[in-house]
Amino acid sequence: MTRLFGKTVLRSGVLAVSLVALTACSSLTGSNINVSRTGDTNSAPAVIPAGTDPDDSVLGRREHPRIIAAYGGVYEDRQAEIMVARIVGRLLAAANQPNAQFQVTILDTSEVNAFALPGGYIYVTRGILALASDTSELAAVLAHEIAHVTLRHARARTDKTRNTQIVDRVITGIFGGDSSTDATANRNRQQMAAFSQNQELEADREGIKYAGKAGYDAQAAARFLGVMSRFAAFSSGAANGDDGFLSSHPSTPARIQTAMSTARSMFGSEAVGETDREGYLAAISGLSFGDSPAQGTIVGQRFIHSASKFTFTVPQGYTLQNSQSAVVGVAGDGEAVRFDSAVVQPNLSLTDYLKSGWIAGLKAETVKAQSYNGIEMASGLAQTDQWFFRVAVMRMDGEVYRFIFAAKQDNPRFAQGAEATIQSFRRAEASDLNQIRKLSIRLVTARAGDTADGLARQMANIPGARDLFYILNNLYPGDPVVAGQRYKVVAPR
């Protein structure tokens, strides 16, 4: 168990890997789909999918509240919720599950992800909602995840990883002693938790069949796999602090081609079926984009947490990324930093906590108590065969936070950067909180003479705006925009 930024984060359960944002709400009249809302963490499908093993149902019900706690809570947007529920309802009918009642949840995270748990639990993130451009693309994702449930892939994976726990990615080799934070054990768990390539391809095929039978464009699966591949490449310049959909569902050219061939063999070579681009865009208009301020915001080299009211700054050259379990930064010269939090007994001193065995290679003689900006701290050095670490912990308002800096070798510049970051940790002031921008998806209508580059300039203050605009709208440089058609842009609320 890890405590992240003032809240307990539970990551036990072998299926809690590869998630992102979460939306869901109350049950919809006349529907067999329940959508989760805030505080609705114990909801369970009234009629579980046909053929579900009783153990599967228990597993899904047990993991559901843990997933909500671990991935930022429920994202509530009534229009998006209704759209998702309707798509799932159609897909269930096509999957011969018309009487099953599924619990659909939209997770409040920018990660691009979707997944399903046995027992009738389906999850999508607002990140994947922002990336899709029509109902058929979202249907392709949801159908793929429903297929994992109906094909009972999750049970096979559960059997393989029974009595294990999915834990956060950690810097290689840093943690020792505690098996829940050991890097080698973590990698093994992640490998075991991932669906096999054959299972992914089987779910692709079955999902394409469900989507096509439900009346959606069956070729959307291949199209959206391509979009996700482009987004993964776009995001690769940032520190990757999570193992989400893009890593567990790699969009390789061969997989994209297989998806296209499958759709054509089942439903013909012509793109047929519903796409409803305009209806989809209307449903996601105003959707939150990027990090949730409640989970912390990155502003250049700074991280600002509005809920716990702290901030810190990393040196130039570090690229920060916020995940559900940590803030991770990577520098181009092989250095890295991880910031997270931990549960520490109030009567345990920070120096004793540093020496308590959770860090491999700690040099106990280097541990010292400190205080910066009126905040109690302690720091020390650690070294393994391949890495040199500078570690610091701080206690503020009863919460304990941790910095872990890693480099292949120690040098004055690395030491100065780590020390400057530690000293920058302080309480956030009003001027800091005012720097937080809340971003959302906004729709713009192209006019005669408009170009994609011209529309992209409306996102001028967004990092990588031009490339992001093309990816969000599945365009390429040189593609024209259609007068009268609406396009997605990211803008401040």
The percentage helix is 25-40%
User: How many helices does DSSP assign?
Assistant: 16
Strand order of the largest sheet: 12-13-14-18-17-16-15
- Compute the separation of the termini in Å: 35 Å
What's the average pLDDT? 80
- By DSSP, the count of extended strands is 21
Question: What does this 3D model show about the protein?
Answer:
The longest helix has 17 residues. Strands 12-13-14-18-17-16-15 form a seven-stranded antiparallel beta sheet. Strands 3, 4, 5, 6 and 7 form a five-stranded mixed beta sheet that branches. A four-stranded antiparallel beta sheet has the order 9-10-11-19. The chain has three domains: 283 residues, no CATH class; 140 residues, Protein Transport Mog1p, Chain A (3-Layer(aba) Sandwich); 54 residues, Membrane-bound Lytic Murein Transglycosylase D, Chain A (Roll), CATH 3.10.350. The two termini are 35 Å apart. The chain is built from 16 helices and 21 strands. The chain is α+β, with helices and mostly antiparallel strands and 493 residues long. The N terminus is likely disordered. It is 34% helix and 23% strand.
